Amino acid sequence: MPVARPARRCAEVASQVRARIADEVRRPGFLAVTARIGSRLCGFGTAVRSADPAPEHPALGARRSQERLAGAVRITDLVVGPAARGRGVGTGLLDILLLPAMDDRAWAVTDHQDTAALNFFRCRGRRQAVYPQPGAHPAHIVLLAPRHPALSEIPVPP
What's the per-residue H, E or C state across the chain? Predict the structure, then answer.
C-alpha cells in the first residue's frame, strides 16, 4: 500500500521533477510520451540518451558505469495513474520510450523499496545489474534491458 506523502514533500518532489525535465528536454535524444484513456491523461514517461563518457553512477562505480550506461537510453520517468494500472498503459509507454534503443542498450533506476516498479520492470525482462549493499540508503537498483550487451557479465541470482 502506497505511503501518503505530506503535501509539502509532494510539492518539493514535483518541483525537482519539473527542474530535471526542463534540463533534460535540451539534451539530444530526449523523448517524452503521454498516455490517455479517452480524454483523460493516465500516464507519462520520459527517456534521454546517457552521456558518453558516462558520469559515475554511485551504485556501479566508474568502470561499470561507462561499460553499461554510456550512450544507452535511460528511462527517467514512467508514471501510470492508479485507475490505469494493469491495462497495458505502462508497457505501451515503455515500448515507445525504448524505440531509440535499437541495440537494446537501455536502463532504468528505481529504489529497492519500490516493489511495484521492480516487479513491472522484471516482468518485462529487465535484469538487475546492481544489488544494494546491506544498510545502504538510499539503495538504488539499476535495471538493464533484456538484451543489453553487459548482461553476459552479470550472474543470474538463484
Answer: CCCCCCHHHHHHHHHHHHHHHHHHCCCCCCEEEEEEECCEEEEEEEEEECCCCCCCECCCEHHHHHHHHCCCEEEEEEEECHHHCCCCHHHHHHHHHCCCCCCCCEEEEEECCCHHHHHHHHHCCCEECCCCCCCCCCCEEEEECCCCHHHHHCCCCC
Q: What pTM, to 2 d.p., does this model score?
A: 0.81
Report the alpha-carbon distance of residue 119 to residue 115 in Å, rounded: 6
CA distance 33 to 76: 12
Question: Which of 149, 75, 48, 44 is CA-nearest to residue 105?
Answer: 149
Q: Which of 13-27, 30-44, 125-139 has the highest mean pLDDT?
A: 30-44
The Cα–Cα gap between 74 and 144 comes to 9
CB 104 within 8 A of CB 71: no
